[in-house]
Amino acid sequence: MSTLSRDEVAKLAGLARIEMTEEELVELSSQFGTILDAVARVQELNLDGVKATSHPQPLENIARPDVVLPSLSPADALSGAPAQEEQRFRVPQILGEE
Predict the structure, then answer these.
(1) Tell me, what's the pLDDT at 50?
(2) For residue 85, is it within any domain?
(3) 78 touches 84 (CB < 8 A)
(4) Distance between CA atoms of 38 and 64, rounded to whole angstroms?
(5) How many CB atoms lie within 10 A of CB 84?
(6) pLDDT at residue 18 tops 70
(7) Within-domain flag for 84
(8) Is 11 strand, coil or helix?
(9) Exposure of 36 by Cβ count < 10 A (0-12 exposed, 13-18 middle, 19+ buried)?
(10) How far is residue 2's CA from residue 4's CA, in Å, rounded to a whole number?
């Protein structure tokens, strides 16, 4: 069984800036051992001839073609705006900016 010592877990927690109690350090060192054993079992597999993939299913781009279609005129787009200025929506000033 692979193990990480309590001190190794404490060092990792320090690098990640995570505060942990003594009980958490001891418990996590045991849990890391289980994880390391699982990774070691996967590494034992014979993967000769297995093609590397980034996704289990083939991915296709299903987006529609980009086609220019008629749209609203500036006057129509601004027709329901509470305030407008120079063919643009006028909005309240934010943070006192000019």
Answers:
(1) 87
(2) no
(3) yes
(4) 43
(5) 15
(6) yes
(7) no
(8) helix
(9) middle
(10) 7
Structural domain containing residue 16: 6-43
Model pTM? 0.45
- Cα separation, 10 vs 27, in Å, equals 12
Helical H segments across 1-98, by residue range: 6-15, 22-43, 74-78
**Alpha-carbon gap, residue 61 to 71, rounded angstroms:** 25
Tell me how far apart the alpha carbons of residues 27 and 42 are, in angstroms, rounded to a whole number: 24
Tens digit of each residue's pLDDT (9 = 90 or more) over 44-97? 999 898 888 888 888 888 888 889 999 999 899 999 999 999 999 998 888 876
**Cα Rg for the chain, rounded, in angstroms?**
29
Domain containing residue 27: CATH number: 1.10.20
